[in-house]
Amino acid sequence: MGIQYINQGDLHYPAGLRNYLAEHAPERIAVLGSLDILKEKKMAFFCSSKCPGDLIIKTYDLAKKWRDDGVTVIGGFHSPMEQECLNILLRGKQPVILCPARSIETMRLKTEHRTPLAESRLLFLSPFPSREKRMTAETALIRNRFVAALADKIFVASAAPGGKTEMLCREILSWGKPVATLESPANGNLTALGVRLLNTKA
After folding, report:
1. Which CATH architecture has domain 4-197?
2. For residue 14, is it left (φ>0), alpha (ψ between -120 and 50) or beta?
3. φ/ψ of residue 133, rounded to 5
4. Staple 130 to which of 19, 56, 100, 105, CB 3.0 to 4.6 Å?
């Protein structure tokens, strides 16, 4: 399975990128995996690098629920919490979309990604050209906006007050997209912005 490319103007180019990123929408997206996954309703998942203890178990449980309910989750899966949840999701049968903050053209495929990729339930997407071989703070920001623009709904497990994830939440809310989080004293900064609490029993 080789890398494909989607250019602006192509039939498969996601409308959400143009709608929300406007002039910052990537000219070309590199794709590895089944393009059919792009048709699914997508839940974006973000979490700051440090996740408060009371939220860790709740987020694990939510990832298991997404897996069991067949929810397609999209994210960069870079922070420790995001990586742990990716491991949970990859043990399911539902699609997962992984968006590294770098080019995927020279990326080494991890062993744990080979089976879900071969089974057409893992899709890699990247808006970065081949020269972007390493993640930087700038590419991480571009990637996160890319993920948010592609998603139908947004979930933020935790966002440090004044941090980059909180700033991203502000931008997504300005787009009018639904953003949810989990109930916790640590998430007071998010609910103060207008992020709603997720009903995990629904």
Report:
1. 3-Layer(aba) Sandwich (3.40)
2. beta
3. -95, -10
4. 105
